[in-house]
Amino acid sequence: MNRTKEKEKTPISKKIKENEELLTDRLGIGVTFDVGVRKLSLLKKEVHIYYLNGHCETLFIVEIMRELMDMDHGHRATSNVKEIIQNHLTHPQVEVTKYMNESIDKLLSGLITIFVEGEDEAFIVDVRSYPGRQPEEPDTEKVVRGSRDGFVENIIMNTSLIRRRIRDERLRNEMMQVGVRSKTDICVSYIQDVADPGLVKLIKEELNSIEIDGVPMTDKTIEEFIFKQGFNPFPLVRYTERPDVASQHLMEGHVLIIVDTSPSIMIAPTTFFHHVQHAEEYRQTPVIGAFLRWIRFAGMLASVILLPIWLLYVIDPDLLPKEIDYIGPNKNANVPIYIQIMLAEFGIYLLRLASIHTPNSLAISMGLIAAVLIGQIAIDVGLFVPEVILYVAMSAIGSFVTPSFELSSVNILMRLVLLTLVIIFKVPGLVIGLTLFILYMASLKNINTPYLWPFLPFNGKALFQVLVRVAVPFSKIRPSIVHPQNRKKQPN
Known about the structure:
Blueprint: H1 2-8, H2 16-27, E1 35-42, E2 45-52, H3 58-74, H4 81-87, E3 94-97, H5 100-108, E4 112-116, E5 122-125, H6 155-165, E6 171-178, E7 184-191, H7 197-208, H8 219-226, E8 238-240, H9 243-252, E9 255-259, E10 265-268, H10 286-315, H11 337-357, H12 360-380, H13 386-401, H14 405-425, H15 427-443, H16 460-467
Antiparallel strand pairs: 1-2, 2-4, 3-5, 4-5, 6-7, 7-9, 8-10, 9-10
Helix pairs in contact: 6-9, 10-13, 10-14, 11-12, 11-13, 13-14, 14-15
């Protein structure tokens, strides 16, 4: 840390050779191929332009050099070389720095730095052009109606996608860096007169307190530092790759954390119920949106308790009402039902992981093989009874219906725990297990935000808007959980 502080205080020397030696030593110029320098003689002064291959727009650099060379032919030698060069830098974003560490950080971020002989300052010109893909619809948040653009790995483009939807002069995008070595760009976005200043301050303080070499895993690493995830399996932050979803949360008073090289935006603070909503509900009429929401809720609930309840009825058939006494295996199984369920669950999750690593061209083939091997053949050889395949498949569908991938994984874990408690303690196991899960979630707090709000603590109006998709004209109040400065959704 002391060596880092000494580097931060290193001033730019008026002797350009000293600057060249320092940069060559620290950046490995001549050893690493992607850091280069172009040396010019302008107005009888030596000028060095340092750049990073692959992160700079070459045409911009060529245009700047052409302008500087034309300037050299049109001016005589003068003592105001710095001012003349600055006036001929044909680019809207030009900064001046007196410190070597800042010039190096900017250089490694894709900007060019220009050193002039006899000057203790350097020009920094933003000519970045990061490699990356174009905005496209996220695979995990598709909608039938609505925009097809999505966040990408470029932080500049991501903030632009949000700015396109919120043209408010009070929208703030504050940039900072995290990681001693990676120096990863992180943007904290919020609307100045809506977001809680205490929340913004807390998030920035947490980011500034992070001490780590680098964050190559980007947003997930930042999440673990800020939200103190620990061994808690429940997601404490909502991710989105849709600019419209991110913009809507901004206008409600939330704060966005945008990490460079990640297409996922973190929304803070969030509760459990933020993870059960989907953009498609707001792209349909309120009635259809509410219907879709209830179907999704039913699927999520089934993914957690359907299998444990069915197993409970299999273990103790006397619990079944006469109207549905047909539920349960119709024949004796060679393998205990509990073992069958665990094997099927393991197989389903293996398929889920395999689908992530399978190329699209082979995904269909893998699905057909899985359907034949795990389904029909397993039944024919007596490994599974048909009912096990049916209920495991229904629970798996419920997991896929869950909008949040993180929450769907937690639901699977909860289901396995409840299955184990049912096989050991039967009815008390199911009741105690569900109670403990609810109590645990009620004890969680996400940046001083109760995790089960508006259920616990209870807020009737807010809970109604969670359960029923309310038409936008009737939703005039921002959620109180984010402590917005302006409660009403109206222009100021």
